[in-house]
Amino acid sequence: MKPDMSFTSRRAAVWLVLLAAAFVALSAFPAMGQQQAPAPGKSSNLININTADAQQLQALPGIGPAIAERIVQYRQAHGPFKTKEDIKNVQGIGDKKFEAIKDLITVE
């Protein structure tokens, strides 16, 4: 019976080690997901449309040099944007373009 006890003990130890390794590996996934995908509105990479220059605005999808310059000119003529939606008052930014950039911009 002694050999069976030894085999059983080793088998139990192997299972415990495998379970512990699986637990450690799986517990790392939520942390990795949070680092890779910050919550919308919480990103530090948002472009402030009230302070960005034309070059910074061109980093937004669909915003080229002409529209970026119009955003800056509109801001100079009318003052700071009060809401993100106000950027739709700039010629060349309609609903479709706004939908593409709304999660990438801020007015704060």
Automatic annotation (TrEMBL):
GO terms of biological process kind: DNA repair
Lineage of the organism: Bacteria, Pseudomonadati, Thermodesulfobacteriota, Syntrophobacteria, Syntrophobacterales
Protein name: Helix-hairpin-helix domain-containing protein
Signal peptide limits: 1-33
Keyword hit for Signal: yes
Protein's organism: Desulfacinum infernum
InterPro entries: Competence_ComEA_HhH, Endo/Exo/Phosphatase_dom_1, Hlx-hairpin-Hlx_DNA-bd_motif, RuvA_2-like
Domain named Helix-hairpin-helix DNA-binding motif class: residues: 55-74, 85-104
NCBIfam families linked to this entry: competence protein ComEA helix-hairpin-helix repeat region
Gene Ontology molecular-function annotations: DNA binding
Keywords per UniProt: Signal
UniProt cross-references to SUPFAM superfamilies, sorted A to Z: RuvA domain 2-like (SSF47781)
